[in-house]
Design goal:
The structure holds two protein chains of two kinds. By secondary structure, chain A is mainly alpha-helical. Chain A contains ten helices and no strands. In chain B, the strands form two sheets. In chain B, strands 6-7-8-3-9-10 form a six-stranded mixed sheet, sandwiched between helices. Chain B has a four-stranded antiparallel sheet with strand order 2-1-4-5, covered by helices on one side. Classes of the chains: A mainly alpha, B alpha/beta.
């Protein structure tokens, strides 16, 4: 049934779309085979930078996001200022578009460095790359913190009672009982955030570093053809789809070990 | 048990005018009770009479508002005192088991001995396996709690608390969430504890069980102990009209 409906839809698209009047010119400017093969290698090389930014930022975001989530979840009245600071951080960071943070932290940070290194010459692309990474970590950790916090609050109070009644300290209770359950629970929403991040690394290009999107833009200018953008899109898909499927698989596996039956 | 009568001069646990309110709702309204070493105390009473809260306060899961709870004559409810050393000595088992679903039975049972008592993994495992064996759970050690029946889960929860070597056990309606046919296996474990001379307080709706193993039965009403005495007296000749009324309702519902 599913196969039948899918092939009907696919057939409709393949049959109808080429009949649209603009199809010839769209095909020429977006799906040009020659442009695809000439631009593939440079865009792929630039895409390696996207991958590296992602690989460096993602673990930092997890660590920092977890720290913020824990700060927001503290219960001791003594630590209220910490909780308030974390709340304020999340509110402010999430209230401003990510691209704006990139400009603010990227150019603002560069400005600060220029003051410090006055007369030494222009700020290097490497510095902008670093500041772009900082901006991604700052913004994404606020989003990820909220996901972790939802997970922490979703662990039933009785789990805490069970742990504390055994004499386990708050720290041990969090580390061994609450967080492992919270993290398992938030893997799907967390994966959503990381799939977004995997694409948003391209935003770093607004500060100058040449990554896949920027490289495609340059090639598009040179070749008068949009196909390099399609190349970039294909490359992003090559990473995000396996990422999504892996997350689903891990989650399903986890569910199977923890309980005998799956509820549909 | 030795020559010491249950009413010996030594008390293991004392409640002195214990009061507790949630918001403007008073839950415990001046509880006074002495529990001798090796005594088993049954707490009976309607839902909301304060049985659970009394046990939770004893484990310091809830702070009390007034009065004191003494363990070996030592005020454990003193403000600012760390609850963890007390909890090592006072074990608690919950109605809903509260096992950790992401850990195997063995990991559930050895976590606290390792982290709190500082036992090595081997030492904690040996001790846990021996006790699981004793309660017929040896073959469940590697399973996750969700795979176990309610009765098995509750027995694991009891083993988990016992692995800390507590001096007092608090059992909070530990059979209330179980299917009727699983109640027996859990009560057998409690009988074992009783035979070992464990000091116990248990909130229960199983009146015949309370009658069988309690030294003293306390009937709670609106946060006070309305009547207390040996089970024969409470169940055969209750003095307080509220106790009579409560037991009549229990009998009418077929639970005695």
């Amino acid at each position: 049934m599913a196969a039948a409906s899918t092939s009907v839809l696919a057939a409709l698209i393949v049959w109808r779309v080429p009949k649209l009047s603009g199809w010839r010119s769209v095909r020429k400017s977006f799906f040009d085979a020659d442009t695809f093969s000439t631009s593939f290698e440079p865009v792929l090389r630039a895409f390696w930078l996207d991958v590296r930014i992602f690989l460096v930022c993602a673990p930092l975001i997890v660590a920092f996001g977890m720290l913020i989530a824990l700060s927001r979840s503290v219960r001791s009245p003594l630590l209220f200022p910490l909780r308030m600071a974390a709340t304020l951080y999340v509110d402010i960071v999430r209230g401003v578009p990510i691209i704006l943070w990139l400009y603010l932290i990227g150019f603002g940070g560069a400005g600060l460095m220029r003051v410090r290194t006055v007369g030494i010459g222009p700020i290097s692309i490497g510095t902008y790359l670093f500041l772009g990474g900082v901006a991604l970590v700052v913004t994404y950790s606020a989003y990820v913190a909220e996901v972790f916090r939802a997970g922490i609050e979703g662990v039933h109070e009785s789990q805490r009672s069970g742990a504390r009644s055994l004499g386990l300290s708050t720290r041990h209770t969090n580390f061994h009982v609450v967080l492992p359950q919270a993290v398992r629970r938030v893997i799907p929403p967390l994966m959503n955030d990381f799939i977004s991040l995997q694409k948003d690394v391209a935003l770093v290009s607004v500060l100058g570093p040449i990554e896949a999107l920027r490289r495609a833009d340059v090639l598009q200018d040179k070749l008068f053809n949009f196909t390099p953008f399609v190349v970039a899109a294909v490359l992003f898909l090559c990473v995000s789809i396996p990422l999504t499927r892996t997350a689903d698989y891990l989650l399903a596996k986890e569910r199977r070990t923890m309980s005998g039956t799956a509820v549909r | 048990m030795s020559a010491l009568s249950p009413k010996s001069a030594v008390t293991k646990l004392s409640y002195r005018g214990v009061c507790k309110a949630f918001g403007d709702k008073t839950v415990l309204d001046g509880i006074d009770l002495d529990v001798g070493p090796g005594q088993a105390i049954a707490l009976i009473g309607a839902s909301g009479s304060g049985k659970s809260t009394m046990l939770r306060c004893t484990n310091l899961l809830e702070p009390i508002d007034d009065g004191a709870i003494l363990l070996d004559g030592d005020d454990i409810t003193e403000p600012g005192r760390s609850p963890d050393p007390v909890r090592r000595r006072v074990g608690m088992v919950f109605q809903s088991f509260n096992l950790f679903p992401h850990m195997t039975v063995l990991a559930n049972v050895t976590l606290a001995p390792r982290k709190v008592l500082g036992k090595s993994k081997d030492e904690a495992t040996d001790s846990a396996l021996a006790m699981l064996q004793r309660f017929g759970l040896a073959d469940k050690a590697a399973d996750y709690p969700d795979r176990l029946s309610g009765g098995q889960q509750q027995r694991v929860a009891i083993v988990r608390a016992l692995q800390m070597g507590p001096e007092v056990m608090l059992l909070d309606e530990i059979t209330s969430a179980l299917d009727p046919e699983l109640v027996g296996e859990v009560l057998n474990v409690v009988r074992d504890l009783r035979a070992d001379g464990m000091t116990m307080l248990f909130a229960t709706h199983e009146m015949s069980f309370a009658r069988e193993i309690a030294d003293t039965v306390c009937f709670l009403k609106n946060g006070t102990i309305a009547e207390q005495g040996p089970p024969q007296q409470i169940f055969s000749a209750p003095a307080h009209p509220e106790t009579r009324e409560f037991l009549a309702r229990v009998i009418a519902s077929g639970r005695l």
